[in-house]
Design brief:
Length: about 500
């Protein structure tokens, strides 16, 4: 595991002690109360891209239905994701990827490792690009960024931002929690100011009732408009799956797992900024926050608010880089390195992003529109495997034993039943709904895509496991009743 300097272990858990993959004991967990965990989840969702999501909600045709449906989708999705992605990690104190070894197999978990790194680093680098370009725009008082000289300034700001992220993330989980708390508080204050400014400038009725012109709407059917919005909310919540395990292992009280996730990530972090983005876009006709903030709040106050919004993005990026640094230690060479060096290596792609910020915003954000789709079937597999088939019991020691004959080895280290179900679920989701082109299947009108896909993949996984795996004695399912108390629990 990650090396821990001797001088850091003298007084309890060091700044590096929670940066490795070993199970985190309850006494060492940093989220000991409700609010800190809520604020960490808030800062993850309330970064500046949430305002762009709100602008997209206007496109469903009805701003009101877009906001209501989005909230419904977020609450439904997060209720499921918090359990599917965080249940095993909370109980045993293990990372997301280690938790996935029980259903996917020791080698099959590489698929989730890929997904975790793709999601965390992808969105972190989008925020780096958005923040670097936005910061230069603020410095130029809203002028367009086009000249070679200005691109040089963007590169310098981007590199300075990457260096700042390393300084903060290298301090470990404790500093991640502190930065997230500060940034979440700032994000909520900025959002509240913008909300009041919109209502003051346009009035409650006009802001709420203004819709996009029908010819530009995704659909003129009210049911389809609501279904689109609900699906956007569920898809966003599914992208939280790779984050949940890494954060849940740091939570001490089980009562603080689901509630803060829904209130912090879904309501305060994702929904509130999205509402502001939707109202602002409907009222001004502008989707870019840098434009409508200045139009609503004025040049001076708007520039100040936009600059503060960009600075508050640090909380989300530091959290994402921390989670990526923990998960990347699944690769043996990273597990042998000290934590500051792990963080530095994880940030190498961000260094390249600083030189190509516009390319990232033009291409990566569209690509990441599919990131929630990857986790539809996987969330179903994780939920059914842990809560139904294993009855909330695994053997933690075997999650770290990548050898033939161990409990979670299955076939050559892979549970092919889980792999097939996840692949089938992904194909089914794309058949029902393409989140980028917005192409939909006939069933989407009535049930969306995520709900039927979840039902299908959950049922298919349960039946196939009962038929093909449990009778053969693979995966340790027969022994789940006899497993001792988990090693992460302090008795």
């Amino acid at each position: 595991m990650t090396a821990v300097p001797a001088e850091d272990t003298a007084n309890g858990p060091s700044v590096h002690a929670l940066a490795g993959r070993l199970p985190v004991l309850f006494r060492d967990r940093i989220y000991t109360s409700y609010v800190p965990f809520l604020l960490t989840l808030t800062t993850l969702a309330a970064a500046s891209y949430s305002y762009l999501v709100g602008s997209a909600l206007v496109g469903v045709g009805s701003t009101r239905l877009g906001m209501i449906g989005y909230l419904i989708g977020m609450v439904l999705g997060l209720s499921f994701v918090s359990l599917a992605g965080g249940g095993l990690s909370y109980r045993y104190g293990v990372d997301t990827v280690d938790a996935s070894k029980a259903p996917l197999g020791m080698r099959g978990s590489v698929a989730l490792l890929f997904g975790v790194l793709l999601c965390t680093l992808g969105w972190a680098n989008v925020l780096v690009a958005m923040t670097a370009r936005g910061a230069v725009r603020v410095l130029l008082a809203g002028h367009a960024v086009a000249t070679t000289h200005q691109e040089t300034e963007i590169i310098l700001v981007g590199l300075a931002l990457v260096a700042s992220i390393w300084v903060l993330a290298r301090r470990g989980a404790g500093w991640m929690e502190r930065v997230a708390t500060i940034c979440a508080s700032a994000q909520l204050c900025i959002a509240a100011i913008l909300f009041v400014a919109i209502l003051y400038k346009y009035g409650i009725f006009n802001a709420w009732m203004t819709d996009i012109s029908p010819e530009h709407a995704y659909s003129s059917d009210r049911t389809m408009q609501l279904t689109y919005a609900v699906e956007f909310g569920i898809c966003n919540s599914l992208s939280m799956l790779p984050y949940m395990g890494g954060l849940a292992r740091l939570v001490r009280n089980s009562r603080h797992l689901v509630g803060p996730t829904i209130l912090g990530y879904a309501v305060c972090g994702a929904f509130f900024p999205a509402v502001i983005g939707a109202l602002a876009t409907a009222a001004t006709g502008e989707a870019e926050p840098a434009v409508w903030i200045i139009r609503i709040a004025g040049p001076q106050a708007g520039t100040l608010l936009f600059g503060a919004m960009l600075l508050a993005n640090l909380g989300a990026v530091v959290t994402q880089i921390y989670l990526a640094g923990v998960s990347v230690q699944q690769i043996r060479v990273f597990a042998r390195l000290p934590w500051p060096l792990v963080v530095a290596l994880v940030l190498i792609p961000s260094g390249f992003v600083a030189f190509n910020t516009q390319w990232v915003l033009d291409h990566v954000m569209n690509w990441l529109a599919y990131n929630g789709v990857m986790f539809v079937g996987l969330g179903s597999v994780l939920f059914v495997d842990f809560f139904v088939l294993r009855r909330c019991r695994v053997q933690p020691a075997h999650l770290f034993a990548a050898r033939h004959g161990q409990m979670y080895w299955f076939w050559g280290g892979v549970n092919w039943v889980a792999v097939v179900v996840v692949a089938a679920a992904t194909a089914l989701y794309f058949w029902l709904f393409d989140p980028l082109s917005l192409r939909v299947g006939s069933l989407f009108h009535y049930a969306g895509a995520a709900v039927p896909t979840t039902i299908f993949s959950s049922g298919a996984y349960y039946v196939l496991m009962k038929w093909l795996v449990l009778p053969r004695g693979y995966g340790g399912y027969r022994n789940c009743e006899n497993i001792d108390q988990p090693v992460a629990v302090e008795l």
